Structure prediction request, 614 residues.
Amino acid sequence: MSVTKSSTKGSGAEPSEGAALDQGHEQSLKLLGRLWRDHGRRYLGRLLLAVVCMIIVAATTGAIAYVMKFVADDIFVRRDQTVLIPISAAIFLIFLIKGLATFAQSILMNYAGQRVVADIQRRLFDHLMGADLAFFQANHTGQLISRMTNDVNRLRGTVSSVLVGIGKDSLTMIVLVVIMFERDWLLALFASLVFPLASFPITWIGRKVRRVTSQTQAEWGNLTTLLDETFAGVRHVKAYGAENYESRRAAGTVRRIFRLNVKWGMVRASVHPIMGFLTGMAVLFVILYGGWQVTQGNRTAGDLMSFITALLLAYEPLKRLAALNANLQDGLAATQRLYTVLDAAPSIVDRDGAQDLEMGRGNVEFRDVTFSYKEDQPAVNGVDLMIPAGKTVALVGPSGAGKSTLLNLIPRFFDVDSGTVLINGIDVRDVTLKSLRHNIALVSQEVCLFNDTIAANIAYGSPEATEEEIKHAAEAAAAAEFIEALPDGYDTVLGERGLTLSGGQRQRVAIARAMLKNAPVLLFDEATSSLDSESERQVQAGLERLMEGRTTLMIAHRLSTITRADSICYMEDGRILETGTHSELLARDGGYARLYHMQYENSAPLAAEAQAGE
Prediction:
């Protein structure tokens, strides 16, 4: 599962302007249709009620133009005092009804639109939670955050303006044009030429806005990525004196966003002079021709005033429709980027007929397993390994040997290219992901803590755990002492990524989390790498209690932590080269022995400790 970046370079001839325009219309219609099918139609009732309100708004707007004939003829020309109060009251009532209907349709359309956006945002997050680990490795966190925030906000702005305005303005224009034709069909025919002529700049503006918006959203993704990297690595930024370098990187991205936004504003603002020119030409013709008819006695001043009022009132919704098209294209560009993520299907899914895993005290087995991150570059190559139920197997070897990759295949973070991973003799691909991962606890060298209380972090994955169980897990992980010394104890909020704790403290909280889960299969990837010697001894005792009777696969660079393992596997280049106990492998004087002596040759106390563990 991955998100591919579109390229602006083409291998062949560029499409013609007409072809590009047709393709843009077709793409826009497909996106709008998909939004309606996926999210919009469930709010059909509210939308229909909003349309009724829009019809009332359009009718009352037309009534304003219609009643102007009587204002001009009966009040201004004939000076009939008997109609003054009725006409004034009618105009007041028209504006009151129009205001109430506008309020109601705005509320209804805004609710439906915002629900659509909220549904998409929730769906996007749920989809990302179901994505493969490979997806997150291929797509930077900052880009994904930008999709969840900037792109969704673009869509939110579009929905709030377009859905509220497009129906009302279209209906209003129709009513006003009908009134214009009722007053003078020939004059209306010439004046209406402004509407088809306006479609060309409206389409051109929409196409330009969509192109600029796509570029702007991509740059926002780059800025979010830069911020995420810089803030996460601020310690290193300061240590290497790279503040100016990072500032220049940020300034370059901000400058590109600024230029694109200025361009976006200029394109959108071009609506006003274009529409002003077209409408001005229409009004000029209407005044010249209509005024001549009035002077000739062929029509009343009220007819002309009513016609001009309708024409001027039609100018505003026409101008708004031009701007709404730009907003629509802005939102469709964001929608297209969101659907790019939503359409990326995960490859790690439950097979048809997958059963829940009934674990018990099962063994874990690798049969001729091969896996590659990149084609023809296997990270694990033909591995056969048995981890008997209730036993502990350790993986050691140089960096890049494939140890973590092998461990990641058990919970199906990745699926094997060939071979089989089995638990209790069952292929892990034949059981549900939920039941598989429920039976596995993982402690990694990359400690992940959340901006929540310590108690919530320990109970992560075990939401029904009691306070007593949480404290017991913390004690077993040698974390209780420092937690209870904090001002709020287990209710202490850790802050972003748990940075208020030391590396060793974070590691112990993570170990307590795994202890609380109490899963039958334990996976430890450098679980004690951040601990000092004293903390490691304390945690190691807790880990040994936790591992009793459980199937355990552990990775360690500090060999003192794995000398008591039931079996040790030495790996290089994705293969297991040696297997045996600590003493057997030392006696063999192979790769494990070299690694051991290289690590402990200058550390007599640690060597003695390792010997004591034989």
